Amino acid sequence: MKKPFEFEHVRSTNFDNFDDYLEIFKKYGVVIFRNFFEYDELFIKYYNDIKELAFLIAKKHSLKIDFDKPLNEILTEISKTNREEIGFIYDLGTRPIKLLSGTNLKSHPAVMKMVELIMGKDSIIGHPYLGETLHIFPPGKENFKHNLPMHQDYPYIMQSPEQLTAYINLGSIIKNEKNGGIRIWLGSHKEGLTSSIKLPSGPRITGNAAFFIDNYDSLDISFDKGDFAIFDSLLQHEGIQNHTDCTRIVQLVRYSNLSNKTSVDYSWISCQVNSKDDEFSKAHPDLI
Hints:
The chain is an alpha+beta fold. It has one domain (6-283): Jelly Rolls (Sandwich). The chain contains 8 helices and 12 strands. Strands 1, 2, 3, 4, 5, 10 and 12 form a 7-stranded mixed β-sheet that branches. Strands 9-6-11 form a 3-stranded antiparallel β-sheet, with no helix packed on it. A hairpin with a 5-residue loop joins strand 7 and strand 8.
């Protein structure tokens, strides 16, 4: 099936501007560029830095691993005997990205062109506190809990409801296996911010999920190495569990428009890790 929001043969190295895709983004809430970072130096540097960190872990534990394999296969091998080390790599790409190469990637000129055109050139753009996550999903039941049911990103991140999620995939699909991904409800962002239910673990899931299931088409999307997508953070979506024997790894970065009136009204508050405050409830009591 041809997806009108998905594009091949568009590379960051020759990306001009987002004008040709803006109306598509507004309609569906997402645009996907396959192999976007295939020849990109900033992407390759970040990818290789993470691979080098994995090599140092393997060396520390005297693990025999073929480092000519893709990054996600290497992480899978490490996780078999030293799963806690995967968590340390996760932390280096999360709240905030702590690698210089990752910081450079999140400010990639091609990505910023998209963000500025969607939000407007006069917008003040920021990063929410919980806006950066290096998701690493090795095989195993313990990772299933991290695949949230239907939700919007904004309620558990905050800072501004006018927010974008950049999806930068670092893992390769091995032998055509689809090791997880996301399910999206196309165009659902046009409903705006919706009611939500807070889970005991902290994040919020969509309170009226049945409405979107009944009224919007859903689509499952898997990503390969170098694929890039940009989402409206109000798009309804959920995680697809990884049932294969290979790791899924993706870098998420959020961008917020701090000029948004609602954002200004509550003084740009971002959700915090393990916060006892419920920032979303305070800012949006009518949606609880």
